[in-house]
Amino acid sequence: MKNRNHLTLASVAVAGLTLAGCATSNPPAATTTAPATSTATAAATPAAEPVVKGVGLNVANIDQTVAPCDNFFQYASGNWLKNNPIPASEVSWGSFNELFDKNSAVQRQILDEAAADRTAAKGTNAQKVGDFYASAMDSMAIEKAGIAPLKPELARIDAIKDVKGLQTILGRHQLIGAGSVFNMGVGQDEKNSTQYAVQMQQGGLRLPDRDYYLKDDARSKAIRNAYVTYITNTFALMGETPAVAAKNAATIMRLETRLAKASKSRVDLRDPYANYNKMTVVELQKQYPNLGAPTLLAQQSLSSAKSVIVGQPAFFKEANTMLKAEPLSDWKTYLRWHLVSSLASAMPKAYVDESFKYSQTLTGAKKMQPRWKRMLRSTDGALGEAFGQVYVDKAFTPESKQKALQLVNNLKAAFAEHIQGNAWMSAATKAEALKKLNAFTVKIGYPDKWKDYSALTITRDSYLQNVLNARMWAANFDNNKLGKPIDRTEWGMTPPTVNAYYNPPMNEIVFPAGILQPPFYDPNADDAVNYGGIGAVIGHEMTHGFDDQGRQYDSEGNLRDWWTKEDAEKFTQRAALVGTQFDAFTPLDSVHVNGKLTMGENLADLGGLTIAYTALQKSLAGKPKTKVDGFTPEQRFFLAYAQIWRNNMRPEALRQQVLTDPHSPAQFRTNGPLQNMPQFFEAFGCKEDAKMVRAEAQRAKIW
């Protein structure tokens, strides 16, 4: 079971990476410009001296009509934002997307070559990668097969005669990724990080968030209507009459709305203690008899489990009631929908089209991504480490790994200095914090031990069957960990991924090869650019270990309170100030950023950038501070940071991001931290009354 507490740099959406948006708020809108003040312009404009040309920053992207001290996001990237409209097949477009596309071109070549090679020995990774991608690209075979590969699963649902039969299918749906009613699997025990445990979490919804079922605003209603249409049309494709299809949609909405009402909000899910409720299997069966714990566990080969961690007891209490009270025929309708909708992307074009029509309302997507790009992502999900090995050979050098490791060590040293010099923290808490920092496991580029796919069967015959096989393999891979030692070599992302993460129970920071490239990291760029780019990313992930969630885990990855009461209160007060700042940001009309939902990411951005700045200063010590492209190292550092987050986003996708994503929109990931940093004010000569300058009493500083 993928750890729900992986804290990632950015979030991924169906139509690409959704990371930011052209926003309108205080600071001023990204779509408006203000005349540059003379003082700010003087600080940022190159002086009349020989210009040293640099690498890693394109100064043509800068919008000189905006003062850096008024809106740095717009100043640093305004021309880029204007000259890079969102492609029709994307819901957002920014630095992450550009690098994702660059990586995809390399991956596509690998997959095309693998698919063309029919000589690979059966059972090898080469055969599996080639056949999976070939089957995914064979749209004619997919059309010809129709939903035939799903008939055995549909027959299992039709055969349900009682609650015991329902429990059996709920267990099976955990294996095939149908997401029916709840999520269940094996993951690290957060209070005993040396062991794996069976875990159960709320789920069972197809809309992206519980609020979409419960809110009555026009936007939520439109999304619900689009979802009902999607369900209705999909059942019609499966052969139901219009009347039956419409009735089925109403049934599914009723069941999912009831589950949504019992679900915790995303903010409430951020409390690791409140979402950790361990009980024996006997207790689980006693409290929720209609879930059928023994049956669920047996279906997943987990009968040896003696205990289960239940995330949200109130949700499971309601699910337990519903499983007995709601008609069995309604549950069978619900299960058919969750099975088919979870596999829509692997089905004939008519099913894919209905799914896309719904996503257009949700995200504002104009055009479906090309098939090769969608199937590349599918192959990465199914066999990411198998073809990730080939990707690493083509696109990542040992030198890059060594340089990245050196940057990590430099950031670590800077963070240690910040902890030691922290005026509000006691010596006892500092000692624990340093112990945790020094215990970080650092993973760079790719795994030391690759996953073994020998038990996974892949052929060219059926893409849909390959997807089912891959899902069952992945579930069994995780479930087989129960009772075994923790595998600390395992990765939660594939090598080509343009992202990074911190995993609290492992106390590890992970940087895939995919992100260790321009604009994040460029071996030919000056230190200022690399520290503002990948340095801020590294600092971000490190700070996650000490944000409002991460700080609750100790050096060994266990949920344990290692803070003095006074220090915890001081941290909470300082973090609350960041929350208040972000609550005030409005990316669209009356839509506010949720400071509580985005708290961890905002703290990581502020802390990471602050630490990266210190690390840069240490690297510059004793060296001449040469201007490059007319900018000082400090200015280039902040420009490089802003470059990462440049991003245009469709309004629909931006609304969804604000509601569901723990990451703030891009403009505020840029301007938000900088408004608290005197280092930024000094670099660009910002006056106290500038829009980017918060009053000293209102500035947030934690690390």
Q: What can you tell me about this protein's structure?
A:
There is one protein chain. With 703 residues, the chain is of the alpha+beta class. Among the domains are: 31-85 and 408-443 and 528-698, Collagenase (Catalytic Domain) (3-Layer(aba) Sandwich); 179-346, Neutral endopeptidase , domain2 (Neutral endopeptidase, domain 2, Orthogonal Bundle), CATH 1.10.1380. 51% of the residues lie in helices and 8% in strands. It has a 4-stranded mixed β-sheet, with helices on one face. A 4-stranded mixed β-sheet has the order 5-6-8-7. A two-stranded antiparallel sheet has the order 2-3. A hairpin with a 2-residue loop joins strand 5 and strand 6. Helix 3 packs across helix 16, helix 7 runs parallel beside helix 12 and helix 9 (218-237) packs across helix 10. The relative contact order is 0.17.
Topology:
Elements: E1 7-8, E2 11-13, E3 16-18, H1 38-44, H2 72-83, E4 92-94, H3 95-116, H4 125-137, H5 139-145, H6 151-158, H7 163-175, E5 182-189, E6 192-202, H8 211-214, H9 218-237, H10 242-262, E7 277-280, H11 281-287, H12 293-299, E8 307-310, H13 313-325, H14 328-342, H15 349-363, H16 371-395, H17 398-420, H18 427-438, E9 441-445, H19 463-479, E10 501-503, E11 508-512, H20 527-544, H21 565-583, H22 599-620, H23 633-645, E12 647-649, H24 651-660, H25 666-674, H26 678-683
Parallel strand pairs: 6-8, 9-11
Antiparallel strand pairs: 1-10, 2-3, 4-12, 5-6, 7-8, 10-11
